[in-house]
Amino acid sequence: MSDVIIVGGGTAGAVLTARLSQDPARSVLLLEAGHVYAPDAYPPSLLDADTVADPAHDWGYTSRGTAQAPPLATPRGKVLGGSSAVNACVALRARPADFAKWGEGWTFEDVLPVFKRLENTPTGDDAYHGRSGPLSIRQRTDDELTPSLLGFVEASVAQGYKRVLDFNGTEQNGAGGYPVNVVDRVRQNVGLAYLIAEVRRRPNLTIRGGVNVDRVLFDGTTATGVLAEDGTVYAGDEVILCGGAYGSPAILLRSGIGPAADLTELGIGVVADLPVGRRLQDQPGYYNAYALAPGHLEMTPAVGSLLWTSSSEAPAGEQDLHVTATHLMPGSLSPTGGAIVLMAALALPESTGTLKLASRDPQDAPLIDSNYLGTGRDTRRMLEAVKLGRAIARDPAFAPFVTQELSPGDAVTDDEALAQVITENPAVYGHPTSTAPMGGPSDPWAVVNPVGAVKGVSGLRVADAAIFPEVPSSTTNVTVIMLAEHIYQRVYAD
Questions:
Q1: What does residue 384 show for φ and ψ, rounded to 5 degrees?
Q2: Across residues 125-152, what is the average pLDDT?
Q3: d(CA 263, CA 267)
Q4: What average pLDDT does the chain have?
Q5: What pLDDT score does 2 carry?
Q6: What is the pLDDT of residues 372-383, one digit of tens each?
Q7: The domain that contains 452 carries what CATH number?
Q8: DSSP character for 333?
Q9: Which residues contact 399 (CB under 8 A, 6 or more apart)?
Q10: Domain Glucose-methanol-choline oxidoreductase N-terminal, which positions (predicted)?
Q11: CB count, 10 Å around CB of 210?
Q12: How far apart are CA 194 and CA 288, in angstroms?
């Protein structure tokens, strides 16, 4: 019997495990479906910051992007460290305008101290940055960027955008190098940053790998533990789901928490009729790829540069477009042996999708419908983002670094044809949120309260990107770390 069972040792789960087990009087059990590596035993594929979406540590999900596109591979990390162990290492905070939509306790003034507390970085303004936190973050400098990545920044400035030296500081509107959780080319995933050897030796902490949780067990409406796929019961006074925006809602649904009609159709008894999985959001992208020119074939580091700006339809204060420059496309796919991708992304989509169960079987992947470009406004803004990236690519500050456009290709010139290509070939940016969103008592979409407690039951909490009220305009990993830290401070810290 544990005081707390944490399901999922990914970004949020690792943070909460480290924090909750600080109290020697509290017994903590972490259940991770993937492999649990010792801090000094992560394989090279997970340490290499230039390698993403490792198939050996992935859930193997697919999703629907648009009606015109084939099923999309949808990477999610399955290992201690979760997606922070397989992502592109971008350490970009959500903006104040994003948090203005989150409600009580989640304003930027509330969360800035938390961002500072989790971070250690040697640069930037002390008002915005932490020096001694567990997560190492480093701002990419010009001399670290490849010539083409720097050329992208310089071309963006030539096109009239501001030069941003610190996206996690006062200014985000413009172009610059990314902040990354990378030190000496090594990815600093949360399994390394938070679950250090000293933490793992705590006598009140147990970490078990290879445990795929089927569902939460209840006595009436009180959570009493979890049932694993192999039939093992783990009893606990409290259960915290940290399975991510896909894993946590799937467990909730199998546990009888979700839309009553959907549960009844699958023969699942209803514990709480809540809109789980009904407000999925993810940011659609498109890979605008180029062959690097001979003499400019450098591709390390792979990540990268960013232009973060506003579309012509963005409300005042919002930045809804990203154009990212990376070398994450293998050079073997380019006729010159080198490639750069200017990925356009709609960072603040208004479209929402769904996550549903395929069956009651925990081995069956959930049915993920991202519903990319589900509104005319989303389609227009996505087209605007791709056209923006192509304009930067033609700028004299960038054009010498590339020889040809690989996708969509020079033959695609008019807006109608380009919009069709985008709709048929969307890319997964990989920042899903809001499948069990937080909200107040009167919010009809809320599944949890503002600190993650599931409505209508006791002893059960969700603490990961599933509870974001909507997708922020940034990448999500560092904001998930902040969320876990902030919930710990608000609920559990003395």
A1: -60, -40
A2: 98
A3: 6
A4: 98
A5: 97
A6: 999 999 999 999
A7: 3.50.50.60
A8: G
A9: 155, 393
A10: 77-100, 244-258
A11: 13
A12: 36
Amino acid 150 reads L
Q: Show the domain range for 480.
A: 2-492
pLDDT at 105: 97
| Cβ 64 vs Cβ 371: under 8 Å | yes
Residue 216 has pLDDT above 80, yes or no: yes
Total domains present in the chain? 1
> Is 369 in a helix, a strand, or coil?
strand
Strands (E) across 229-328 are located at: 233-241, 257-258, 272-273, 284-292, 303-309, 321-326
pLDDT for position 494: 73
- For residue 407, the tally of other CB atoms under 10 A from its CB is 15
Distance CA 380, CA 327 (A): 27
Mean pLDDT, residues 172-190? 98
Bond before 441 cis per omega within 30 degrees = no
Calculate mean pLDDT across residues 407-436. 98
What's the sign of the alpha-carbon dihedral 216, 220, 223, 227? negative
- Is-cis flag, bond preceding 400, omega within 30? no
pLDDT digits (tens, 9 = 90+) for 355-411: 999 999 999 999 999 999 999 999 999 999 999 999 999 999 999 999 999 999 999
Catalytic residue numbers read 431
- pLDDT at site 481: 99
360-389 in b/e form (b: 16+ CB < 10 A) is eebeebbbbbbbbbbeeebbbbbbbbbebb
178: left (phi over 0), alpha (psi -120 to 50) or beta: beta
Dist. CA 474–CA 35, nearest whole Å: 29
Q: What is the CA radius of gyration of the chain?
A: 22
